[in-house]
């Protein structure tokens, strides 16, 4: 009897192994596999990853601006009015921020800085700064394994649209003011308003809101988390790759869950091209 049970267990185990498709080791979900895996893991190239990141930067327009609170010696009058706890000095804080990709030749996003806003006050008092951006396709707002099947996968991008599997990245650098005397200032303002029409109420010079001005995040470092590590890169991208991605490359990059369009080139899709410029 025991022998029969043991034999049945062995047969069942062998059958299960033959049916279950091979999958990546768990430790490669949030990290990339070693190089010796070869053809088993087909990761996008660094250049392709940079193009995907630049496309996400253009399409998303909302991010999390991360700074840190200054120490007590840096506190100003406004900080004292905030009644900020003393023990949060040096702590990081991430807050949603509008941005727009209005200078596509550089990859440096534009933001409308409200002078009294926490991130810009922190930066002015010596904080470093970074902008975190994530991709979330419009057509899939929720995910459940009960309703997902392999047939739902996009060709060439075998990733269910769970947030954990979708690309995101963090841009690190410094801010520079966008001077009203800059030759393309009007174009930048129109571009920003096109992405965020409601920001008309806190544009520079608007007397009904707090003082504001345009700034640009000059990108110095890019950390890319492309998705699960068996199918996307998770690494720091060379900033030269980020800066040198052409609009054509960004246009042609494919993102998980992105609406399928008929094949075309960025130069023939005049509306997309015109809106970016």
TrEMBL record:
Residues 44-242 form the CREG-like beta-barrel domain. InterPro entries: CREG_beta-barrel, Split_barrel_FMN-bd. Keywords: Signal. Residues 1-16 form the signal peptide. Pfam families: CREG_beta-barrel (PF13883). This is CREG-like beta-barrel domain-containing protein. The lineage of its organism: Eukaryota, Fungi, Dikarya, Ascomycota, Pezizomycotina.
């Amino acid at each position: 009897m025991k022998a029969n049970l043991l034999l049945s267990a062995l047969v069942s185990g062998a059958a299960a192994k033959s049916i279950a498709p091979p999958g990546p080791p768990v430790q490669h979900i949030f990290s990339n596999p070693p190089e010796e895996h070869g053809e088993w893991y087909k990761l996008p190239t660094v250049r392709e990853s940079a193009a995907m990141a630049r496309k996400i930067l253009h399409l998303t327009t909302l991010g999390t601006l991360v700074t840190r609170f200054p120490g007590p010696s840096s506190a100003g009058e406004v900080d004292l009015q905030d009644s900020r706890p003393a023990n949060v000095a040096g702590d990081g804080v991430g807050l949603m921020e509008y941005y727009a990709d209005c200078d596509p030749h550089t990859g440096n996003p534009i933001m409308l800085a409200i002078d009294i806003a926490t991130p810009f006050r922190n930066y002015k008092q010596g904080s470093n700064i970074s902008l975190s951006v994530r991709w979330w396709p419009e057509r899939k707002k929720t995910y459940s394994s009960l309703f997902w099947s392999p047939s739902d996968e996009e060709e060439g991008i075998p990733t269910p649209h769970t947030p954990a599997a979708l690309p995101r990245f963090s841009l690190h650098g410094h801010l520079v003011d966008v001077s009203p005397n800059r030759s393309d200032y009007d174009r930048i303002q129109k571009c920003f308003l096109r992405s965020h029409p409601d920001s008309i109420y806190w544009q520079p010079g608007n007397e009904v809101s707090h003082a504001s001005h345009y700034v640009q995040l000059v990108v110095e470092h890019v950390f890319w988390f492309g998705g699960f590590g068996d199918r996307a890169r998770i690494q720091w991208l060379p900033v030269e790759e980020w800066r040198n991605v052409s609009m054509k490359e960004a246009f042609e990059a494919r993102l998980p869950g992105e609406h399928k369009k008929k094949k075309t080139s960025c130069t023939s899709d005049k509306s997309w091209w015109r809106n970016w410029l």
